[in-house]
Structure formats: structure tokens, C-alpha cells
Amino acid sequence: MIRHANAPLPPEHSVTFRIATAVAVLTGIIACAAVGEISLTSAAVASGAAVAGMAFSYLTRNRPWQWVKILLAVAVLAIFASFVLQMISAAHVGQLSSIEVPLTGLFVWVQIIHSFDVPARRDLLFSLAAAGALITLGAAQAVSVGFLAYVAIWLGACLLALGCSWRSMTGGAGSLPLGSLVVTGLVIVLAGAGFLVLLPAPRAAQAITLPSSLISYLPLRDPAGVTGSGSQSTEPAQAGRASGRTGVGGYLGFASELSTAIRGTLGDEVIMRVRADRPGYFLGMTYDTWDGQNWKRSGPTGRIVELSTGSPFDVGSALSSFAQSTGGGAAQNLFDEELAFGSVNVQTFYVALPIANLLFATADPTEVYFPEHSLVVGADGSMRSTIAMTPGTVYTVISDDSEIAPSLLAKIRTPRPSPHSGASDPDLELPPGRYSRVAALAGEIVRAARATTTYAKVNALETWMSTHLRYSTDIPPLLAGQDAVNQFLFGSRVGYCEQISTALAVMLRTLGVPTREAIGYVPGPFDPLSDLYEIQAKDAHSWVQVWFPGVGWQNFDPTAHVPLAPPDPGAVLLSDVGHAIVSLPWAPTGGALCVAAAGPLVAVELRRRRRRPRGWAGKITAELERRGAAAGLRRQPAETLGEYGSRLGNCARWRAGPTATASLSAATALVERAAYGSHEPDAATRAFVEEVVNGLHPQRGPHRRGSDGGLTTA
Amino acid sequence: MRWRSRRRVPPGDRARSAMASTRCIRHLALPERAFGPVAGSVVLLLVWAGVAHASGSGWVQTVGAAVAGLLLLGLVAPGFAAPGLTLICQSSPTDAIAGSVVELDVIGNRSMRCTARSVGGTPLLLAGKIPAHLVIVPPRRGVVSAVTVRVATAAPLGLLWWSRDRVLELTRPLYVAPQTRDQGAALRQTLTPDEGQGTPRPTLTGDLRGVRPYQHGDGRRRVHWGASAHTGNLMIRESESRQDDPICLIVDLPRDLDAADRIAEDAMGEIVMQLNAGRRIVLETTESTGRVVAPVADRVSAGRRLARSVASSDAR
Q1: Are residues B61 and B42 in the same domain?
Q2: ipTM beyond 0.85?
Q3: N or C: which end of chain A has fewer CB within 10 A?
């Protein structure tokens, strides 16, 4: 039976089959390199080796070299032993999750080795299956939609290879039915899409180590503070300027203060990709101090603790200790028996652009997987990295997203004291003497709605805002000294999330409800292929957190209730045109424009070349026509060269020269013979004709009418 | 020479046995040896789903969905392609011998594998619309006008074969002659001594040699009435016997197919032997149209007669 199983199979002669298989293998290798599973150098070497192996196998397919098989078998055993050793060492240090990279290396090596011994169809099919394993390993780390290109190429190569395999099974004769293969591919894509729709979204098993990794390690000078983008790791956090974009996709928050007077230009670039059990408001940080134009962080909110336990970090315990130290711990347990408990939300963030050293998460993070030995946790639940958040950084946060029922919130009738002890409560503080009108307005709204509880007051204010305010990002900058809330509520009443949330926060504070400003991101568009939310720069958002005694801080987003402002057609048109110009694919567009510009030039040149006289007769004819045109005698379309020569000879516009009517007639007759009579004139004839033609010089000055009777002679 | 079997079958049974080649046709396309590919695919996809849900990667699930689509199409699509498989016989021979190879020129409408089912044969892989030779091995004597062929395809990806049966109509009836068996002693034991080894029976032709008493089997036209009146017994004209006088061979086949084949093979062997000896043979058989008595000039015509012959009406 063993002898039968190892019996040599008939060699596979189809070059197309081998090329398709090689493309599938190379796609798998390159895909692994693209997601960082293997280095680019390794990928280049592996690709070259795989191609060389395929070529070697093709050349020796009829008589495979037995000693090569032995060598390959030994090499495979060695590589497998190396892999096992890596596994054992990884298990010893408790990093079993790092199996992916050695596994990829194992598959790549096996693929390379196997490519030197693929004489038959079955061997090529094995290579195809191994390429599938490689593409899967790459897919495990892929977060970008660009990975679709690798999947498409791999699938197309597999389809072509299997089609070639089927043709080989039936004798290998005839041409490959590419049309039916295309139809088959479309059906496969449709079936795959159907499976994708039907299957539940994959969720990382918490039994294993959750994803977290770093591409580069850039320690921060001041890890306790909020820094700018990761590429400028040593730069302290600065509020954005209206003149341009900040390093965080144009959002002016994620800094030491948040100015509502200006707004950056938010782009469409993907900041992060998030895989989450449930989408939510991904909190970055909060502000508690409002000065009329800017939000700032004060002492209680800015209190931090640095966890140095290494990943995973027990953030939940740190936050609990904060709550107990401020006296909020006991209060937070008041309604524990009524809370709907148990909504764990696992969120994995894949950083795509340099961002501030903030770790985003939905409410109440409990555990953080971050590949660093320390993590800074703020009292407001914000988390900061001690290293720069560069592209490629991956971290996972487990949050306790317990839903608080509105009925429970509605029971809290009287605002309890703020969790921060002391006479000065920044969650209630307002600049003195500025908000009497705001307080009157808020009180009037609450009285009209007969709202007595905090929840009812918030709802009443949100309802009023939804009917009296309009959302627009196209608002003029705030003048110096102007109060943002007064200007917004009693002026234009048009603003965006920062104006709207700030207005709600200020109105609630005038009613004695502790509030604070929260900033972060909302989930961006969902990519069903990668099962990721793509957070773009324009998904930066601000909302309000309201303190409910016994429950804690609760998120309220008044912007969600505010309708859009009626658009200004001109501004919208200009904005759309600007966005369209910015978002144009300039490489292909520029190429198309260049082609469009070069096309007429090329056409003109071709036309000129086409009209350019060819041969001696043509050149002489062109010269004669040129000189005749200079004398005001253009050749008529129906005029033969002889007739034209006679007309030129009868013209009296020539200044001087050895020509005469007879000479010109003879010259044109010779040119006609040369042009149409297949008579190649000798050198003397050419010289004579050229002398006659070149001797034609039109007279200077006005042409004398009626003097076309003869030529002037020298 | 008379050669009669003890077992008789009703006429028409032979025809039915010839038509048996087109019976038991499976029109429904079914997969062949599907357990391995299907189980392998399921296991592969389960592993894929496990990896996707362990890693939480949507791309793994996407790739897995694409692979699932590929496997689904590869496993199921041949089932839709198999009913459309068409096989046409372009030419077929007229004569064949039971147990020997016969090549049929066939052409299909697409790539397929075809194997003759009603008669033996070897599988043939057809590459598209390229003509090929389908080898069949008729196991029995008879007239074959159609062959049941199992056509199978694994298009477009070659992952699983699906097959169904098709009736391949031959361009002309194929007369499958019995094999030529040297009857030897076995045959001769079944013959009467004077029939097998005696003097050749006098015929009506030739020069008159004399008269003799009547013997069982003599024709009435050979009775010499004058001599019979003179002697008071039936006397038979006896002529000079000629070497090329035809030998009358009567073949009555039984209903049992195996026994009938054996008898036909013995008869064929006898015919061949006699033909090789330069003798002429008149063969009397029972065909579906009735009793046929006609000379056979060569082994081909003898084979066709024996191929057409069925069990005689008094066969048991």
C-alpha cells in the first residue's frame, strides 16, 4: 500500500497550471509580508526561491531527481523541529499567542521546499492548499480593506489552477474555458458573500491572549500628559490652531485643552480600526473646567495612577480605587442590585495613523491588553500610553458596558453631591457673571417640562435643543473675548458637536447638575469584510457626561437630536468642489490629463510627418510650393506640377536668378518624371533642378499687378 | 447434423436479453465517492471557522467564506453539469465477438469521463469535443443497438465526480458473435455416431449411384418410387456424394442464457471447423421473426446468425 501511495504520478505539463499555482503561492507570501507576518526581505527571498523551485520542478518533471527528494525531506524535518522548539520556548515564557509568526515561517519554508518537488498535478494542488494556509495567516493580521486585493488575486489564481487541473484530468487537450471560469468565479464570489452574510461575526476568544502588538517603540518624555501624534512623541500636547490640521486627523481635542472657538479640518483618513462586540462612544478623555471658550482639565479629572504590572492591566481596580478615594465608591453601589449587569465588550484597536497617546474605550474599561510594561490611568477613566501610538500599534480593551435602564435613571430625583470632595467642584463651576441668561433659559425649559429629576432635566434640554438649534460645521470662528455658549444659544444657534455639548453642559451646571465634556470617537463605517469599524478623522466627537449619584457618569449626546442646518447652496457647492478636488485620485487623473494633452500634440506631429515630403521629388515639390507661396502664387488643389511650374514661370514676381520659363518647365517635367515615372534622376539632373528651384526669389515690396508675364533673370 | 438442446426457451427471450443493455438506467445525477471530499471540505471549513472565531479576525472569515464558496461550487456544480452531458456515437462496427474489445467512435459535448455499463469496458476521459474511442467488451452473444454509458463530470474545478447514465445509440446494430470454442469431444458426444463420423449423406445432386432402404431423416423427394414399388419398401435414391454438399446445422438454443451461449459457442466452433474444411453449411436457427434456414458462407455471417438467434419455441 505504501508503495502504491508513493507511486510516481504522471507529470503535469500544463505551464498555465504551474503559473497559476505559483501566483497563488506568491500572493500568500506577499500577503503575509504586507501584514507584517514576515519581513519584506524574507518575502523577497521566499518568492524568488519559490519561483526557482517551480521552474526546477517543471524542468525535471519527467524524471524527478531522487536525491533532491531526500534533501527536501531532511530540510522539512529540520524546519519542523525548529518550529517545535520555538513553540516550546514560547510556551515557557507564556507567550503562546506569538505562535503566528513561527507558524507563518514554517508554512513559508514548507512552501519553498515543496516547490522544488511538484512534478505532478497532485503536488501542485498541495501547493495550492498551502497557499491557502498562507493567505489565512495573513488574513489573521489584516485590518485594511486593501487585503481584498490579495484575496482576489489568490482566489483568481486558485480558480485558474483548479480549472487547469480539471482540464488536465480530462486529458489536457483543448483551450482553457476562460469564459466559464469567469462565470464560476462570479458564482463563487456570490456564494462567499452569502456565507459572509449568514455567518455570525467572529469574536476573539478570551481564553487566549487578546491581540496587542507594537511596530515601533518610542518612549514619551512626559507619559503622564497627553502628547501629540506619535510621530512627534516628544512634543507636548498643544491645542490645535485654526490655520491647519493637527496631527490627529484635524481634530483639535486630545490635548491639554479644547478650544471651541476654532475648528480644524477633519478629513476622511482612517485613524483607527476597531473590532468590537458592540459599537459605542469610544472615550478618549474628559474636560471639567470651562472658561467661556476653552475646556480644560483640573485637578480631580487630571488625577492619574500609573500601572506597572504589564499587560494585561487591571484598569477596573484602579478606577475603583479612584472612586473610593473620592467617596463615590459607596454611592456607586447604591443601585448595584438594580443594574443590568454583565455586558462585556471586547474592543481591539488597530492604530492606522499617528495619534495621541490615548487609549480609547467604551465606558468602564476593566482590563487592557497593551504591549508595554506601564499604563497611565486617569480618574475620569481615560488611559494614556507611556509610548507613542504609532501606526501598527494594536491594543485590546475589555469594558463593562452595563446598560443603565432609563427608568432607573429617572428615579434619581435630587442631584447628589459631586464625587469630588471639597468646596470647589469643577464639575459645577462656571465663569462668574456670564450665564445668567443661560440659567434663566435652562430654568424656563425645565419648568416648562416640569422636570424634577436629573434625567428629566437632561431630556427636557435635549428636546429644546432639537427644536431650537441647528447642526452645521460651517460656522464662523469665535471672536476674541466672546463667550461660546452665549454666542451659540442667543446668537446664531448653529454649531457642531462642541458647541452643542458645551451648551448642554453649561445649562445643566446652571441647574446644579454636575457635568463634564467628553471627547473621543464614534464608530465609523463598518467594513463587513474585515469585521472592523473604520474610525475616520471626521468621526471625532464630543458629548456630555452627567453625574448620577449612585450610578456614576452617564453619556448623553445632544448632537444626535439636533437637526442639520439648512445648507447654503453656494457654500455647499464650493465645499463639494473642494472635497472633490482633494479626493481626486491624482495619479490616474494626472496620467489621463497628460494623455489628453499629449494626444493632440502627437496627432499634429503625426499629421506633419504624414504630410512631410518623402523622397527627392517630394522635397523639391515642397520647396517649389513654398517659394511659390512666398511669391503669392499658391498651388491650386487641382493643379499639376507642370501647370504650376508654367504658372510660376509666367509670373514676373521673381527678383533674380538663373531661371527662365523653359528652365522651370523642364525642371518641373523632370520632377514629375521622378515622382510618377519611377525614373530616378541622376546627380546632374538633381543639381539642375535644385538650382532652378532654389533660384526662385520673390521680389521685395508690393507685387506688381499685371506683370506676371515673365521671370526676371540675373 | 442436428444439434438440439434439451432446454427450450420461448422465442423473444433473446431479444429481451439483447435489450437488457438499456435497462436499469440511472437518470438521476449522483455524486461518486462523495464522502471523502465532502467530509474533507466540512472539516476544512470547521477548522477555518474555528481559526476565525479564535482569532476574531474578520478577514479570516472572509477568506473562509470565499473558500466555502469555492468548495460548494466545486462539490455541487458538477451535479448541475452532469445532466447536460451528451455522448454521441459517430461510428460503430457491425460485428464483434463476445468477450473481445470493440471500439466505438464517440464524441461528447464537454469534458467527461464515460464508462460502458451494460457491457464491459474501460473508462474513457473525453477532453471537450474531441472524438475518442470508447472501448466496450460485450460479454455475451447478441445484437447490441444501444449501450448504457455512465457519464461523469467534475467540472469546473475537478473536486467531485457526479455521474448519470446515458443510452448511447450505436450507428448500426452490433452483432456480437459467440466465441469460437473447439467443441472437441464434448461436442462430439452430443452427436449421433453416424451423424458425426459416418459417410456423408447422399444428396439430390450428383450422379445416381443406386438405391438403398429409407433411413430416418431422408427427404421424401429422394424416394425412388419405382424401386419402392418393386421391392415393397421405401427406397431412396442414392447419388454420388460431393465434398461440397452443405452441412445442415440446426441450432436450438435454450432459455438459459449461459447454456445458450455455450451451445452457440460450440456451434460456432463447429461452423468454423467445417468452413475451414471447405464444407458448406446450412444453418437453421430461430430468430425473433421465426425459423430461419439459410446457408452461411463465412464465419462473419455465421456469427451474425448466431447473434440473432433466440431460444426456439419448444425450448424449455
Answers
A1: yes
A2: no
A3: N
In angstroms, the CA A179 to CA B119 distance is 37
Q: What is the 3-state secondary structure (H, E, C) of A535-599?
A: EEHHHEEEEEEEEECCCEEEEECHHHHCCECCCCHHHHHHHHHHHHHHCCCHHHHHHHHHHHHHH
Provide the domain limits for residue B262. 1-9+178-200+243-316
pLDDT by residue for chain B (316 residues), tens only, comes to: 444 433 343 444 444 444 444 456 788 889 998 899 999 999 988 888 888 877 777 888 888 999 999 999 999 999 999 998 988 888 899 999 988 899 999 988 888 999 988 787 888 888 877 888 999 998 889 999 999 999 999 988 889 999 999 889 998 999 999 988 765 544 444 444 444 444 445 455 566 778 888 888 787 888 889 999 999 989 988 876 555 567 888 888 888 888 898 899 989 988 888 888 777 888 999 988 888 888 888 888 999 999 999 887 655 4
Is B54's CB within 8 Å of A530's CB?
A: no
CA–CA separation, B24 and B32 (whole Å): 18
Asked if B57 lies within 8 A of A531 by C-beta distance, the reply is yes
* Interface contacts (A, B; CB < 8 Å): 155
Compare CB distances from A208 to B49, B54, B126 and report the shortest one's residue: B54
Which DSSP category does A490 fall into?
Answer: I
Q: Is A39 exposed, middle or buried (0-12, 13-18, 19+ CB in 10 A)?
A: exposed
Asked if B259 and B305 sit in the same domain, the reply is yes
Does A174 lie at the interface with B, CB-CB under 8 angstroms? Answer: yes
Q: H helices then E strands: how many in chain A?
A: 22, 19
Say if A36 is an interface residue toward chain B (CB within 8 Å): no
What total of structural domains would you count in chain B? 3
Interface touch A136/B72, C-beta < 8 Å: no
From chain A, the residues in CB contact with B72 under 8 A are 191
Could you tell me if residue B56 is inside a domain?
yes
B252 within a domain of the structure (yes/no): yes
Give domain status of residue B19, yes or no: no
* CA–CA dist B16, B12 (Å, integer): 6
A165 touches chain B (CB under 8 A): yes
Query: What is the gyration radius of the CA atoms in chain B, in angstroms?
Result: 30
State the Cα–Cα distance between residues B203 and B247, nearest whole angstrom.
11
Q: According to the model, what pLDDT value does residue B1 have?
A: 42
- Out of B48, B56, B60, the one facing A348 most closely (by C-beta) is B56
Task: Give the B-side interface with A, CB within 8 Å.
Answer: 48-49, 51-70, 72-74, 77, 111-113, 125-130, 154-159
Q: What residues contact residue B219 under an 8 Å CB cut-off, 6+ apart?
A: B204
Whether B16 is in a domain gets the answer no
Residue pLDDT, tens place only, B65-76: 999 999 999 999
Q: How far is the C-alpha of A485 from the C-alpha of A327, rounded, in Å?
A: 32
B59 and B75 co-located in one domain:
yes
Same domain, B185 and B215: no
Do B65 and B167 reside in the same domain of the chain?
Answer: yes
Sheet holding A294-296, edge to edge: A257-259, A294-296, A289-290
B78 plus B137 within the same structural domain:
yes
The Cα A229–Cα A391 span in angstroms is 10
Cα–Cα distance measured from residue B283 to residue B271, given in angstroms and rounded to the nearest whole number: 9
A532 shares contact with chain B (CB less than 8 Å): yes
Same domain, B225 and B293: no
Chain B residue at shortest CA distance from A154: B63
From A277, which residue of chain B is nearest by alpha-carbon distance? B56
Q: Are residues B303 and B187 in the same domain?
A: yes
Give the pLDDT confidence of A218-232 residue by residue, as tens digits: 777 666 666 655 445
Q: What is the dihedral of CA A266, A270, A275, A278, to 10 degrees?
A: 20
- Looking at residue A239, its pLDDT comes to 44
Is the pTM here over 0.95, yes or no?
no
The answer to whether the Cβ–Cβ distance between A171 and B126 falls below 8 Å is: yes
